[in-house]
Amino acid sequence: AQTVTQSQPEMSVQEAETVTLSCTYDTSESDYYLFWYKQPPSRQMILVIRQEAYKQQNATENRFSVNFQKAAKSFSLKISDSQLGDAAMYFCAYSVNYGQNFVFGPGTRLSVLP
Amino acid sequence: DAMVIQNPRYQVTQFGKPVTLSCSQTLNHNVMYWYQQKSSQAPKLLFHYYDKDFNNEADTPDNFQSRRPNTSFCFLDIRSPGLGDAAMYLCATSGSSGGGLELFFGEGSRLTVL
Q: Which CATH class is domain B4-113?
């Protein structure tokens, strides 16, 4: 069974600084997708960034980038120039290509300090 | 524009009194999901529909049922809510035209059981 682990229940970062959230996963599949989702307090969950496992190049979306290490089964999220609006729960998630099931990690609560 | 709409946002029910939560989508997505999320935990998949095909997770209690009368709507029925069913219920959708498609979430329905 696939599992997703986030070892940091809580993190904090100063505004304008950089923070990295960790995620590891376990799978026997070779073709899969990894995601970071953001869930602000009392608001809906939204996609931050997505990575295809067959792509070696790390995905980036503006201030958000990932460090994808396929052999190590590691998928960390780096947030640069942190903003107050980045404060949220961040969930790492996994899905198998053409599968319909998404497996979520336990989440990391990120606080951004002014 | 809201794309996945859940109603009601807040539902209070009494122990054992049936409750129905609704979800509608304007994305014309084939797949609709119901997740249960307890405070600051990862979303837990209850079941999902691929078109009209219903897929129940093995550990979803029989107390939870779902209906999808058409592409746009999906309902979660909790037949006899217990105190342990108090949670946020998230509806999500995804397309089916390839792998790695993101989930689009609604804002959730928070269920309180008295």
A: mainly beta
